[in-house]
From TrEMBL:
It comes from Candidatus Doudnabacteria bacterium RIFCSPHIGHO2_01_FULL_46_24. Coiled coil: none annotated. Transmembrane segments: none annotated. Belongs to the ROK (NagC/XylR) family. It comes from the Bacteria. Pfam families: ROK. SUPFAM superfamilies: Actin-like ATPase domain. This is ROK family protein.
Length: 252
């Protein structure tokens, strides 16, 4: 009998959900706008709509503690801190994995996507917010406070967070418009983590010319030009798959 996990990728503007099998194929995909006022009830209704599943994995756009507690969500104003793992396991009687959405994206890329042939992988989600994940040898590194990879909250010399500066800049129509922000992001990651590959996903990844822009930035970084590869993600439904991956790994 085929085993299915339900994967849910919660973003600042939309939620994507689907059933994931052991070959990481996604079926019964559903996409809906993220509720700013009642996200928890929206998630409960969405999960119930799938009926019986073997396990549930959810990627959330904010700080997620190892216990499954989800703290403040930057782009969802009315979220209240809750242990989502405990709540869902009690309600649906199946194992639940709760993970930061950018970390879910990175884990999927590292295991089944563009980073699968590399030992050190960094993933970046650039969209409504800025998130990142770090994977070494197919294991997520979360840090002592579950904040590893929160590059959007790097404080700049003007006292603003990088994510705030990006929002003030508005919408980008071509990759070169985002060059100064991309350069800061890539430089910080290369100098601090020095991964073999960086995978970029989210809305920015679909901006025309993004792959060429990323490659040009890496080539022109000053002092110790890195050999790090930077690629636009080509893995469909990475957030959904990544939220479920630890559940498959633990079962094995």
């Amino acid at each position: 009998m085929t085993s299915f996990n339900l994967g849910i990728d919660v973003g600042g503007s939309k939620i994507a959900a689907g059933l994931v099998d052991r070959r990481f194929r996604v079926s019964k995909l559903k996409v809906l706008p993220t509720s700013d006022s009642n996200l928890l009830e929206q998630l409960l209704d969405l999960i119930a709509s799938y009926g019986c599943v073997d396990a549930i994995g959810i990627g959330m756009p904010g700080q997620v503690l190892p216990s499954g507690e989800v703290k403040k969500l930057g782009n969802i104003k009315h979220w209240k801190t809750v242990n989502l793992k405990k709540l869902l396991e009690k309600r649906f009687k199946v194992p639940v994995n709760v993970i930061n959405d950018a970390k879910a994206f990175t884990l999927a890329e590292a295991v089944v996507g563009g980073g699968r042939n590399f030992r050190s992988v960094v993933g970046i989600i650039l969209g409504t917010g800025i998130g990142s994940g770090i994977v070494f040898d197919r294991q997520i590194y979360i840090g002592s406070n579950s904040l590893a990879g929160e590059i959007g909250h790097i404080e700049l010399l003007n006292g603003q967070f990088l994510e705030q500066e990006v929002r003030k800049a508005g919408r980008f129509n071509k990759a070169s418009d985002a060059r100064r922000f991309l350069r800061t992001l890539i430089s910080v990651i290369v100098r601090s983590v020095d991964p073999e590959i960086i995978l970029v996903g989210g809305g920015w990844s679909r901006i025309p010319g993004m792959q060429k822009e990323l490659e040009a930035i890496v080539r022109t970084l000053r002092k110790f030009p890195p050999k790090t590869k930077v690629k636009v993600s080509k893995l469909n439904h990475a957030g959904i798959i990544g939220a479920c991956l630890p559940l498959f790994q633990h079962r094995d």
